[in-house]
Amino acid sequence: MVDVAMVGAGQTKFGNHPLGLKGMWAEAIEKAVHSVDSGFDSTDVEEAFIGSIAFGGSQLGNTAALLTEHSGMEGVSVRRVENACASSGFALRDAWMAIKSGQADVVVAGGIEKMNDLSASRKRYWLGVSGDTEWERLAGLTFPGTYALTARRYFHEFDSTHDDLVHVSVKNHMHGFENEVAHLRKQVSFEKAQSGFMVADPLTLYDCCPTSDGASAVILVADHLAHKFTDTPIWVKGSGAGSDHLALHDRPSITQLRATQMAAAKAYKTADISASDVDLAEVHDCFTIAEVLATEDLGFTGRGLGGAFARDGEGRRNEGSVTINASGGLKSKGHPLGATGTGQAVEIFKQLRHQVEQERQVRDAEIGVTHNVGGSGATCAVHVFGRQR
Amino acid sequence: MSIAILSNDQGHFACSQYGGDWAGPDGDRFTILLGLLKQLPAGSLNLHTFEDFLEFIPSVSVRDIIESSTEWRIDNQASFYLHASKSSYIVAITTSQDEPNWPSFDATLYDKDMKDQLDQQWKIEVEGVSQGAYVSQAQHSIATPSRLGLKAQVDHEQLVWPPRQLNATGKRIESASEQLSETATILTWTRLSAAGAPSEFSGRAPILDGVSTVLVQFPEGPKGVFMLADDEHSQPAIDASVRFDVRRLYGQDGMMHYGLKAILL
Asked: Which CATH superfamily groups domain A4-119+210-386?
């Protein structure tokens, strides 16, 4: 079967971005194209998959065609992919499958979101449309609430306290501090993160990622074309995805994400690796408790041990057993919803090619993983990347 | 909300724990009536002029809400008549169509400023327009017996709630018919600030110093999430028990949406 190589990757800075949709997407594509070592013509793209939750409803229909029209890909077969915050993780998977199936040789996957020019109430509305609206939203829940319910239950079931989440927050702010594309580039002390404004008890401001603007894109090609574009392609060795009940109350357990477990198992199997082979992972830490669960569900530590994993600094860059969120993660790098998944892939692409800022480089990194979750765990896409085919 | 009930030769009267001047943070004449009906032996009711005294139009019919959340049935030939006081938050069930002599109730102290702010906020909410039809009228109506009456479906000898059309293997499940218990146990809970609450609740959350939500499990197995009510002086805890009352959930598009809220036992 065809192997898939990533030969280019680019993104805007995440945060309060001055550009609109078309401008941000154009910037991400421009950077992805420029990152291709031997040059790349965007008119060669055969298929494009663009993840987005639709930026507050401003362009709900034909979003993707509008974006490709404005980025030198006029005429390309294109569609918007929507799976809440996992939209571009699934766009990446769709792109990977398009090449794997032999239907296309050159494919773009990306994502985009523009949230910071929405009114506060409209932003809250759009951030709350991806749960089981009929049964969760009417009970007062958006995602801070659902993850807060999970965190409190996690503390009840396992040997963990809110301090473990503080460790996650401090680490990710430390990692993101030197990342020039990160939304929140500031270090946070343990004491400050411990005493943040309460958003959804027990989660404070420092447990919650920001809502960011941003766009990201990667260029995937079939194996026979990889070395036409670069001597150092990054291979997309595995891809897996899963889904689960949208509502927490319909799940057998709320302290683990079954969608992540299914996605990881499939991705590791296709890549023929195990969790212990992973050198760095960009995980979906929309809330700090989500990173704790991810380290368990991705197999980096055992069930119920994610709190201790964070407490012991296991995810710190070049210190722990596996670097978790070298970019700063959603917590610091930012979370432009639909752009997050391929934004994670951009980070892995650069890390594995040793192209990030020197102080951020994960040493001897050979295998990286991305983990992109939709909602409170209804959807999840996991990808495995490697320097070796 | 604990209601106060007074029975005399005219019939049965009820108001909120705050007396006749206020129905509480998420109460109104309708929720007081539903509380009263749950306390009385079931029968048939004539709505009479009751709907004329509701501040806002319910998103689901008064009949459906009463028949889903209580054992009472609406019948225009019934000999029990509903009344509501125009000048106070007192409701009555009598055997006469004539307006009863409204009794006075002892009241507990409450924060008048908070009441005024909440009253104003409810009006603002109801006048607001939805930013998207995230819960359609059909969903509201179809699920009313389950949403308000805790009716569950049966699938392979297990109870299913909230309701769904097909089971995990794609087979159709019969309509909800089994009654879940009236109490449940808290598995986890949170208290949301205005920043953490959905837009529907973000106006009231600061006035109430946050809104609480609990994830509970019924003795029969199903789980669900509910907002907490009457928790001004208490905090939820894992393994604590709750019961349920119908309260105002939120107002939108000129209508008031009602639903079950959990109350700590």
From this structure: Thiolase/Chalcone synthase (3.40.47.10)
